[in-house]
Amino acid sequence: MSGHVVVVTGGTGALGAAVALGALQAGARVAVTYRDARDRDALAERVPPPARARFQAVQADVTDAGSVERLLAEVTARHGAVDALVNAVGGFAGGDLLATDERAWDGMLTLNLRSAYLCCRAVLPGMLAAGRGRIVNVASRSVLPPAGGFIAYTVAKAGVIALTQALAQEVRGRGVTVNAVLPSTMDTEANRRAMPGADRRSWVTPEAVAHAILFLTSDAAADVTGSLLAV
């Protein structure tokens, strides 16, 4: 992975940060997206000084096509062609169908699915031209099989799975792999606050999920595509 250019959307979140720091440790050049400068600064403080020259943070709205294009332009101007994309942007909202209004429905599909679509579409031409690339999307273990009670999130993440598998077929044999990681509930500060009484014994750490993602971005996973890796 040393020298590879890795873009991590949502790179200041718990999972995105774990991926970014792991990729930097492996010698990659890493660009993360952020919305809030405070989150960017908090992550930058965690980057070891020897790796700071390989780290880039770009303010971007990955649900907007123009913003994604500017993101890609900034990354390639500094680091060159993108070798790997990790779509770690996402969000959760509860609610059954009758409790989910149009705004909530559209919000979940935009944040979780549209973002992945736009970013995949942006990096794919360069990867195909190079004959090499890795795309890893983050879905959710809780949507297989589809569950009730958080229907917009379920449909959005199921869409990420379908996008992953369909795109993997479209680019099969052209050097680009497309896979998805399906985390269980992650042990993050946000989830601990949201579920204070939950049994956390089955929760997974962001670092464990990041390890799976980084494997799929590596040369060791060159023959793995269209897979759904549950963690």
Q: Can you walk me through this structure?
A:
The chain is α/β, with parallel strands linked by helices and 231 residues long. The protein has one domain (5-230): Rossmann fold, CATH 3.40.50.720. The protein has helices at 14-25, 37-46, 65-79, 102-130, 151-170, 189-194, 206-216; strands at 5-9, 29-34, 55-59, 84-87, 133-138, 176-182, 228-230. It has a seven-stranded parallel beta sheet with strand order 3-2-1-4-5-6-7, with helices on both faces. Strand 1, helix 1 and strand 2 (29-34) form a beta-alpha-beta unit. The protein is globular, with a radius of gyration of 17 Å. The two termini are 22 Å apart.
Brief summary of the model shown:
The chain has 231 residues and is of the alpha/beta class. The protein is built from seven helices and seven strands.
Q: What does the main sheet amount to?
A: 7 strands, parallel
Helix percent reads: 40-55%
Q: pLDDT under 50 segments (min length 5)?
A: none
What CATH architecture would you give?
3-Layer(aba) Sandwich
Under CATH, the homologous superfamily reads NAD(P)-binding Rossmann-like Domain
CATH fold category name: Rossmann fold
Shape by Cα distribution = globular
Mean pLDDT: 95
